[in-house]
Amino acid sequence: MSNPVDTINQLTTELNFAGQAWIWLRTNLIGLSGAIAVTVIGFFVVRTLSRTADKALKTSERLDPTVARFLGNVIKYALWVILIVTVLTQFGVQTTTIIAALGGLALAVGLALQGTLSNVAAGVMILLQRPFRVGESISAGTVTGTVQGIGLFTTEITQFDGLYVMVPNNELWNKPIVNFSRLPTRRFELIIGIAYGDSIELARSVLLDIAATDERVLADPAPTVFIAALADSSVNIGLRVWCATPDFLQLSWDLTQAAKQRFDEAGITIPFPQREVRTLPPPPR
To answer: CA-CA distance, 132 to 146, in Å (whole number)?
Structure first.
């Protein structure tokens, strides 16, 4: 059988707790109502703003889809953080300590992942500055090939020999990038040597005729023939032509082959390095 005194004490405690709760509710009713209103209204505002920003970023022609998704997520999470801090303030929570703790946590995570974050920063800069796009051929450092994909951490490249390379974005961003595909036209330069006894004017005429008969060679800028160097065994003659970028590789092969064939037909010699060795007689005794 329970002690009547214990029962009375328990009832008194429960009544005191209920009374305290009722007093707290009456005292904080306005703040609680405001917090609930801020939560409900803020939920719809954050969702609407997030969707609007995400749609605007994805439909922008100036932003890469990867950058648009990244910025959309940043805006969404930032809005949710602002909403949570605002709601906690309405409940009377001191958010200064929470914000300081989150700042310290972010700093610690940033220091631990500084290599990864540098790749993310480089990826964002690549996507914003667009030194290259998917499908373009580039050279950066020791990597040369066609870009297959650009992410926030790495860039996927297929080399011209068919090998797949995944390059950290920081490695690309910190090196000069040569884009072979960006501009519509390119210049090709062919250097070919002729013998010192051959006619320079004849060689010039042959090279200009080769350029004039190839439809891929642009008329403006006009093809140019020049003396590149007076080498040890040959006079090096250069041919410069401009062409559309997609025609560059095949044109370079075809012009090189045509120059050899046409020089043979014209009797122009393409010399190879020679060395003359003389044997001196022994000195008299």
So the answer is: 10
